[in-house]
């Protein structure tokens, strides 16, 4: 039976339309009616080098809107939600190395068929691995259990321009939280709107397929994150997306769209709703490949190599208790609470930075 209608459209109907659009209508990135596929800035040189080795046929059917590649992911178990033709999985298969693994999930057969076509040759010849460390699975990202993805089995979730295409964002984020191991992270790029998309636009098929109807208002997205357990979402990068098509432009009116990369850490029992000061400090060891001089956790927190920086409790946990832990030294614990960090702020440590602090 079809799931109930949500926000004016049924999930089953949206899935069918999206499968048709990405499986049969679009042939290449250039067919899209927005600038989404070119919105992200230039990738890091290490990512650019990995991209150059991805088969051209896979690259041609890239429909992402960002750059969802954290550096330093050797050995991690990666899951790509809505992998499409698999471009980002191919890049991650190189970045995690032979000891890591990459699983791409998508619901569209044509995309999966292309993703699978070059997988063996790419892993075993281009990368020179003994056996492929990358696989593709058919499934819906709202129901990862049905696709065989077990609870706590993933270190890093990536996703590129997909969550906007589901009417049930809460289910996707709750599933992401469930399948991540403690200390794991969802690092992903997606389309967002600077205001709530009016109800009458949410039934327009092309607006849905292009991600314009389903893009969340950023503040609503942040609320859902907190509801499912990602208590302190961190924004990394943000780029405007232009709607090229005049008809669609007229329909969306004054709404503006952005491609944003967020980092959501799963640190159960550790992250707090507010930014608290326990007198902790963190020091980046300079060990992440491609980041010898500094590491940016998010748009507000950059850590120069070997420099101690005062951090709030949440930032200390993200750096010390997550997969990033081997690249940071964190001093102090939570035995003494010194109040809010910084004084008076109830949010993440991103404002009114005291000198020498992380924020
Ligand atoms: C805009 S494309 C992005 C594909 C890929 N991430 C990339 O960067 O090229 C969206 C993809 O998400 C898939 N998709 C959308 N909604 C999905 C869902 N609910 N479950 C699984 N896959 C979904 C589509 O089949 C399509 O391949």
TrEMBL record:
It catalyses: arsenic triglutathione + 2 [thioredoxin]-dithiol + 2 S-adenosyl-L-methionine + H2O = dimethylarsinous acid + 2 [thioredoxin]-disulfide + 3 glutathione + 2 S-adenosyl-L-homocysteine + 2 H(+); arsenic triglutathione + [thioredoxin]-dithiol + S-adenosyl-L-methionine + 2 H2O = methylarsonous acid + [thioredoxin]-disulfide + 3 glutathione + S-adenosyl-L-homocysteine + H(+); arsenic triglutathione + 3 [thioredoxin]-dithiol + 3 S-adenosyl-L-methionine = trimethylarsine + 3 [thioredoxin]-disulfide + 3 glutathione + 3 S-adenosyl-L-homocysteine + 3 H(+). InterPro entries: Arsenite_MeTrfase-like, Methyltranfer_dom, SAM-dependent_MTases_sf. SUPFAM superfamilies: S-adenosyl-L-methionine-dependent methyltransferases. Gene3D superfamilies: 3.40.5.100, Vaccinia Virus protein VP39. It is an enzyme of class 2 (transferase). Keywords: S-adenosyl-L-methionine, Transferase. The keyword Flavoprotein does not apply. The keyword S-adenosyl-L-methionine applies. Its EC number is 2.1.1.137. Transmembrane segments: none annotated. Residues 75-226 form the Methyltransferase domain. Signal peptide: none annotated. It comes from the Eukaryota. One of its GO terms (molecular function) is arsenite methyltransferase activity. PANTHER family: ARSENITE METHYLTRANSFERASE. Belongs to the methyltransferase superfamily. Arsenite methyltransferase family. This is Arsenite methyltransferase. It comes from Chlorella variabilis (Green alga).
């Amino acid at each position: 039976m079809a799931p109930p209608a949500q926000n004016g459209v049924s999930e089953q109907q949206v899935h069918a339309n999206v499968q048709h659009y990405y499986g049969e209508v679009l042939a290449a990135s250039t067919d899209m009616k927005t600038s989404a596929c070119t919105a992200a800035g230039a990738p890091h040189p290490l990512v650019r080098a990995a991209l150059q080795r991805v088969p051209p046929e896979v690259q041609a059917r890239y429909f992402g809107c960002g750059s969802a590649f954290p550096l330093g992911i050797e050995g991690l178990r990666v899951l790509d939600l809505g992998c499409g033709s698999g471009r980002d999985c191919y890049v991650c298969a190189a970045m995690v190395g032979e000891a890591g693994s990459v699983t791409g999930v998508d619901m569209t057969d044509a995309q999966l068929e292309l993703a699978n076509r070059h997988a063996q040759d790419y892993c075993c010849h281009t990368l020179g691995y003994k056996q492929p460390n990358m696989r593709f699975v058919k499934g819906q990202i709202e129901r990862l259990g049905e696709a065989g993805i077990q609870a706590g089995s993933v270190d890093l979730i990536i996703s590129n321009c997909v969550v906007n295409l589901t009417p049930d964002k809460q289910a996707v984020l709750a599933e992401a939280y469930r399948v991540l191991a403690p200390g794991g992270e969802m690092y992903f790029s997606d389309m967002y709107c600077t205001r709530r998309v009016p109800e009458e636009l949410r039934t327009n098929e092309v607006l849905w397929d292009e991600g314009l109807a389903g893009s969340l208002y950023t503040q609503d997205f942040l609320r859902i994150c907190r509801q499912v357990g990602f208590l302190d979402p961190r924004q990394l990068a943000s780029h405007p997306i232009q709607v090229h098509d005049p008809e669609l432009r007229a329909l969306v009116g004054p709404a503006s769209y952005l491609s944003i990369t967020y980092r959501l850490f799963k640190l159960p029992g550790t992250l707090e709703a507010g930014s608290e000061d326990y007198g902790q400090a963190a020091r980046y060891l300079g060990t992440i490949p491609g980041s010898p001089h500094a590491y940016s956790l998010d748009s507000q927190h950059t850590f120069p190599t070997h420099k101690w920086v005062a951090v709030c409790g949440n930032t200390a946990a993200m750096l010390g208790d997550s997969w990033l832990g081997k690249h940071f030294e964190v001093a102090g614990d939570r035995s003494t609470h010194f109040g809010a960090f910084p004084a008076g702020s109830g949010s993440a440590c991103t404002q009114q930075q005291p000198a020498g602090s992380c924020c």
